[in-house]
Amino acid sequence: MTQPEFRRAAPRGGQEVDFYALLGLAERYEIDRAELESRYLEKSKNVHPDRFVAAPAAERVAALQRSMQLNQAYKTLKRPLARAEYLLARRGTSIGANETLEPGFLMEVLELREELATAKQAGDAAKLRQLESAMRHREEDTLGRIAALFGTLEESGDSSVLTDIKREVILMRYIERYLDEFQDDI
Amino acid sequence: MSLFQIAEPGQSTVKEACKGRAVGIDLGTTNSLIAYVKDGEPTIIPGPDGRELIPSVVHYSDDGSVTVGAEAKNLASRYPRDTIASVKRFVGRGPEDGEATRTMTPYQFAESDGRVVKFAVAGGRRAVTPIEVSAEILRTLKVRAETVLRDDSAGPEPSEFANGVDGGIDSTIDGAVITVPAYFDDAQRQATRDAGRLAGLQVLRLLAEPTAAALAYGLDKGTKGTYAVYDLGGGTFDISILDLVEGVFRVKATGGDSALGGDDFDRTLAERILDEAGYSDGMAGPKHAGTRPDRALVSRALREARAVKERLSDSESTEYALELPDGRRFVRIVTRAELAEAIRPLLDKTGRACRRALKDAEIRAAELDGVILVGGSTRSPCVRDYVAEVFDREPLCDIDPEHVVALGAAVQAELLAGGSSEVTLLDVIPLSLGIETMGGVVEKIVHRNSTIPCGAMQEFTTYADNQTGFDIHVVQGEREAVDDNRSLARFYLKGIPPMVAGMARVEITFLVDADGILRVSALEKLTGIENSIEVKPSYGLTDEEIERMLMDSFEHADDDLVERNLRVERIEAERILNATRAAMKSDPELLDDVTRAATEKAMAELETLAAGEDYLVIRKAIEALDLASKPFAQRRMNRAVGAAVKGRSVGEVEREISH
Amino acid sequence: MSAQVQAVVSEEAVVMPDLSTIVITKSAAEAIQSQRVKRGTPDAAIRVGIRGGGCTGFSYLFEWDDKEPKSTDKVFAEHGVKLYVDPKSFVYLRGTELDFVTSMMGHGFKFNNPNAKGSCGCGDSVQF
């Protein structure tokens, strides 16, 4: 039995590297996408390994590392869910692989998945579109609540909100995984 | 770069002597090209025959000699087994890759140790890997470029008759950017890089073909915005969505199929015709109880299919004619509509990949600023119509779709060699990378379309009590089950101290560099002991293999060099003889008797020696003629310089002297 | 008599520039104009010339000149900017067009010099 068992680790990189500082942004949940974009492109120009092709080995490695961190920072901050998880981790709240879910929601997710599987098998495009759009609405609602909660947290510094955020973030994970199911069926 | 900035007084710097050139290479399935940036413009380097495309075909003959290009292609029908075409399909593939080794290839595969495909060539006496075959093509391109670049960069000399008689072996090529399909997986990239090394090239970068195409367009047209690049070559299909903002080229998504291309159109058509003629290749199933075609027939059928396809680009219908082994001649009309219908399932595959890429890039077809066509197969109206249908717009094709990739690679090579920061390329990895976990499920560690370079780390722990090792299996692909993905590497991490299950902490780190090549390392960090292992993909070559092949190629290179030098010296000899004769005829008054006698003697000797086989002897004879005719040349030069002062360019004068 | 000479044939066959002058394109003049304002010397002239160096043996001199031209200098003025050229260099610069270009390879000034037989890959040096 030498097969490894996968165990999700806390977003370690997040604790070591300050993504917001790296991109020169204020550490807030709400971010300006256009600003994130232009900061990322600007900084990428300066650290990309292509600019260090002729540099000594140590500088090349450093450039590779900085470039990697920058890509990771951009990728994390771009997506609301990844950004929320990152901010939680920065405040010491990590989300494990076996977090419990509200029983009601779990049942609902299971049912929705079954409906999805049936629709896929039948090739029922109308039903698939309907399921997807329903879940997109939920995604929007959940993200709205997460943004509001972070707003409270950032204004009042009340860390009791963290538990609420964590619950919503776990919900979001399920929602995203469900939406992933629509990815490759085009 | 031929652009200047205004310096402060006295601050104009004289640049150090520049290094060799950087070239861009499009190593294609069907054809290959090499290009470089000349005076700021990317330019294709033609071969000695003036042709720009070199067929990616390598012939290994019984006597051990190797032929590359058009000549090799002509030998394909006579020696189908010894002539490898479309080698790109096999690069980085293992023998068990069904796709790579499927039927309807005329090749014979040699026994191999199970990691790399090997072709049995030279009448079965030699086994070569796809890497070696690719390296032959690259070497030919390199020689082509060296010949042109050496002439191009020869310094100013007060020219006499002999000018630049250096058959030197100094490489004038500093580095190369080789393009690969964006969809190439890690093993295929590694193999391409290995082929470059084997050909004696310093591979500066592997560049995704669509990115190269966009670079070529960006340079020429100064475009801005988001573009789709639809690249259908002989054997590969790529779709990429890129955007260009403030000097940053960003690949937003890529997709495609590394075993789908114009060759498949030929194959589809050939299969259909062979089937009608009563020959089946066994692919169509047992219901077609035809005779199995022999290899020569398959070769002929494919060739005719390609010709028919090409003719259908200009006309609505054409004749397909095939000589059958029983002496019959099978003839029938094929229309463009029929071809479109036959290849529709293949085109639909590309269409699905396009839609997925748009989705990954989070953009709608209507929001694109343009669709760029790349690859010889996009010349076909059937393909163009299909692309227009998928993206709902007419595609761009201002730059020759067969040149655009090499031109873009040359631009990138120049940027890399010059360390210019004007353009930054942000590329992505085409396929997700992960690790096998319990129950044969893949845990993705780096997701597809992540911008490179990138890295990710994941922690693992032991499953059983007192488990002292991990079997780490690295896979690439989008599917959840390990078996549906491509196995890249396997390695074992041992030395974990015995402890309760779940206690150990093993960090697996994935690092993808700017070439898209993966390095995996595992670190057991619990008891303060750090073990780290680097792995290479299982289809790559070991360092020993590379070394052996390099040695082999050096041996060949020696032969090549002698032959090349001989050719160069003979041409030089002829040119000098002609030039001297012409000069003696036009300016006899400048020739004194002593010089005339010495020159004529040297000419006669050179004429005799040029027929010999020793290039060094010929070179000496050229030098001797040069020396003998020096006083004459000097006088002509002096007279010409007098003319120059009266208002003509030095070049003009020199031209005059040379005629 | 060599391959290089043949390259010259094709290059020279295309254009026949005015060999009595150096032409400054409008875009070059505009770039010089704006750069000298930024430099704080709105009246500065440009000195161009040829000197030894570089991998082909010659390279361009291209810099600001805040003084009056020397008595031997040739002076060219066009679109409101002035160029000084010493007479020796002028032999190699006759008919040159000074242009300003923007491309993916960057932006900067370009010498379209009919006397040049070619340049090296980096283009910093020139060959006659």
What labels would you give this structure?
heterotrimer, B: 659 residues, alpha+beta, Nucleotidyltransferase, domain 5, Actin, Chain A, domain 4, Substrate Binding Domain Of DNAk, Chain A, domain 1, 4 domains, disordered C terminus, C: 128 residues, Hypothetical Protein Aq_1857, Chain: A, 6-stranded mixed beta sheet, 3-stranded mixed beta sheet
Give the topology, please.
The complex is a heterotrimer of chains A (186), B (659) and C (128).
Chain A: E1 5-6, H1 12-16, H2 19-23, H3 33-47, H4 57-78, H5 80-90, H6 103-122, H7 125-156, H8 161-180
Chain B: E1 21-27, E2 31-38, E3 41-44, E4 54-55, E5 57-60, E6 66-68, H1 70-75, E7 83-85, H2 98-101, E8 119-121, E9 126-128, H3 130-152, E10 173-180, H4 186-198, E11 203-208, H5 209-221, E12 225-232, E13 237-245, E14 248-257, H6 262-276, H7 295-311, E15 317-323, E16 329-335, H8 336-360, E17 370-374, H9 381-391, H10 404-418, E18 424-428, E19 433-437, E20 441-446, E21 451-452, E22 454-461, E23 469-476, E24 486-494, E25 506-512, E26 518-524, H11 543-586, H12 593-609, H13 615-628, H14 630-645, H15 650-658
Parallel strand pairs in B: 1-10, 10-11, 12-17, 14-18
Antiparallel strand pairs in B: 1-2, 2-3, 2-4, 5-6, 5-7, 8-9, 12-13, 13-14, 15-16, 18-21, 19-20, 19-23, 22-25, 23-24, 25-26
Chain C: H1 3-14, E1 23-24, H2 26-39, E2 45-52, E3 58-65, E4 74-78, E5 81-85, H3 87-93, E6 97-103, E7 106-112, E8 118-119, E9 125-127
Parallel strand pairs in C: 1-6, 2-5
Antiparallel strand pairs in C: 2-3, 3-9, 4-5, 6-7, 8-9
